[in-house]
Amino acid sequence: MEVEPYYYHPLENIEDVDVFYEAVERERLTKSLSPERPYTYWTIELYDQINGIRGGGGLGILAADTRRVAEKMGVAFALITPFYPYEVRQNLKNGQIVDQHFPVNYRNFGFKLVDKVFIKCHDNLCQLDVIEKKFKNTRIIAITEPNFGELYSGTSGSDHRLYQEVALGFGGYAALKLIGLKPAIMQLNEVATFFAALARLDELVRNGMDFYEAVVYTRKHTLYTNHTLVQAAEAEFSEGQFENYVFPNLKSLAVKRWLKDKFSNGKLKLSSVTIEIAELKSGVSKLHTRVADYKDIAGNKVKFKAITNGIDMDAWVLAETMSFYHRANILDRFNAPTPNYDEGIELLSSEKIRELKRYGRGILNACLKDRPDQNGKILRFSGNDFIFDFKRRFVDYKRPDLPFRNPDRLRNILEKRNAHYIIAGRVHAGDETMSNKLRCLLEMVNRDDYLKTHVHYIADYDEKLAFGLSVGSNVAINIPIVGLEACGTSWMKDVANLNMLISTHDGGVADASINSYLSVSGENDEEELNMLYQRMEEAILAWENDFDLEFIIKRQLSAFLPIISGTRMMKDYLDYLFPM
Ligand SMILES: *Cc1c(COP(=O)(O)O)cnc(C)c1O
Fold first, then answer.
1. Is 266 left (phi over 0), alpha (psi -120 to 50) or beta?
2. For site-directed labelling of 240, which of 19, 279, 482, 513 has its Cα 20 to 30 A away?
3. Coil, helix or strand for 250?
4. From the CB of 276, is ligand 1 less than 6 Å away?
5. What distances in angstroms separate CA 454 from CA 298, 364, 388, 471, one per listed residue?
6. pLDDT tens, residue by residue, 301-351
7. Does the CB atom of residue 490 touch ligand 1 within 6 A?
8. Structural domains of the chain sorted by starting position, each given as residue range(s) with its CATH number in brackets
9. Separation of 336 CA from ligand 1 center, angstroms?
10. H/E element holding 562?
């Protein structure tokens, strides 16, 4: 018999997780989901470097985590996404961000060519390759061709983006048919995947279903997951663009008419039609669901069901820490918190925390070996060094520059403990404003002899660096402008890896009480900045005191573990999609 070394589970009451999962798998899922009728997940972005697909940020990270969690839970699952033949890596040259483009071959990543499908563009046939990679009960089906371009190439309302989105939707739907799969559910990860649901609607009508029945059927089986806060910010496509890329792919006149009707002044936002084609709608945190400002075509506010994002703990948490979580009965074998997880957390001592962070520090050093900072210096930290990190895309609302508004104060704080501050985050391709902001920030840092050797920017932020920093630093700083982060997942990696979290009360962080972590709040930037500096000082002191360290880390873990578990997220989706 195979022994599961760290898993121990008392079979005592009906709350028991095993009983629950068995019920889920037997009673519900087997009826609704099967290998031929999988849960389908559509995403224009996947961040899964091991499988050759590099995304831009959180949206793609979430997609990869969702598939891996489905694999562990035994859920029949197919993820449909583009395979981009080029990826962008970022470098820093003389303080300036430089993008480099590298070709990627899917054959080097275990994908197999299935066959070809065709879509129409400008009344020409465009040939798309369908490639596939299987992972137990799940698979990635990707659409690709040599001129598919890069992720988010061109502006968001451009012809090329529309082409990519149409190729994923119509091409991906044709690919499912080709492979012999029928979607039990279509989860649309943001509106760029709308065309997949449209392809289904068109097929139903073409096969003889009454148009209204087909709309109802498609709606019932489509979930639109929104990650964006303001509809107004979304790009529009013109009717002319649809004439070229979308309408030629529709066989049903009724569907074409329905879609044409949705244009207003010759323009269309995909969210307006995605809202219509999906009866099920979700947002990615409790706060996001409350503040997301979306109207349907009739002008009514759209209600989103809150299903907070989670992470695949196996992918993001240090192996030694996962062993501890399982041994202490904090996580069950599906990586969901056990009913008594709080008792397990009580077993976490300051010694254990320090020991696990020492392992993590080694991984961080290995990760930094070929990634110099802005001054070409290769960093190597001892177990005694103190590290703050700010690792997130370099965009305005996340406020990467806020901690640098008072450089004297920042220097004082770092000097007290001879601490380091690591910044990692990619600038969106072509974002001149943020690229300049980063350059100014680094110039300012380099003018100060102390900051120059204690503040480090590491270019080309990716999964590996995200992991290295989560397991190897002491304190993570997450300070988006409140109301602008939909959920965020990098802070989840920090909490799970026993970093101290300093954060504004925003996104998924606000799912928990404001007293469960080192929170930053205030009436304005200045007040928030002052509180941020206080929290940094507090964190340094807490790491020097066993009692405080233990108290803060346990409190965080206890409040957030149920929130950050990807298994919990998948269970929430299944409950929503297949109600008992
Ligand atoms: C986790 C992760 C993200 C998500 O970051 P958020 O700012 O929390 O949305 C983005 N990029 C990479 C490489 C990550 O690992």
1. left
2. 279
3. coil
4. no
5. 55, 16, 10, 19
6. 999 999 999 999 999 999 999 999 999 999 999 999 999 999 999 999 999
7. yes
8. 14-310+569-577 (3.40.50.2000), 313-562 (3.40.50.2000)
9. 21
10. helix 546-564
Burial class from Cβ neighbours inside 10 Å (0-12, 13-18, 19+) for residue 125 reads exposed
For the Cβ of 320 lying below 6 angstroms from any atom of ligand 1, the answer is no
Q: What is the arithmetic mean of pLDDT over 503-508? A: 98
Q: Please give the pLDDT value at position 323.
A: 97
pLDDT at 8: 29
Instruction: Quote the distance between the C-alpha of residue 30 and its chain's center.
Output: 28
Q: What is the DSSP letter of 499?
A: P
Give the count of beta carbons closer than 10 Å to the beta carbon of residue 136.
11
Distance 423 CA to ligand 1 centre (A): 13
Residue recorded with tokens 């907070």: 308
The amino acid that residue 480 corresponds to is P
User: Which two structure tokens, joined as six digits, stand for 67?
Assistant: 């598939």
Report the predicted TM-score, pTM, of the whole model to 2 decimal places.
0.94
* Structure-token pair, residue 339: 């009913």
Residue 127 CB coordination number (10 Å):
10
Question: Where would I find the beta strands (DSSP E) of 315-468?
Answer: 387-391, 420-424, 455-458
Q: How far is residue 325's CA from residue 330's CA, in Å, rounded to a whole number? A: 5
For 508-566, the pLDDT digits (tens) are 999 999 999 999 999 999 999 999 999 999 999 999 999 999 999 999 999 999 999 99
CA of 353 to the centre of ligand 1 (A): 24
Ligand 1 atom, smallest distance to 485 CA: 9
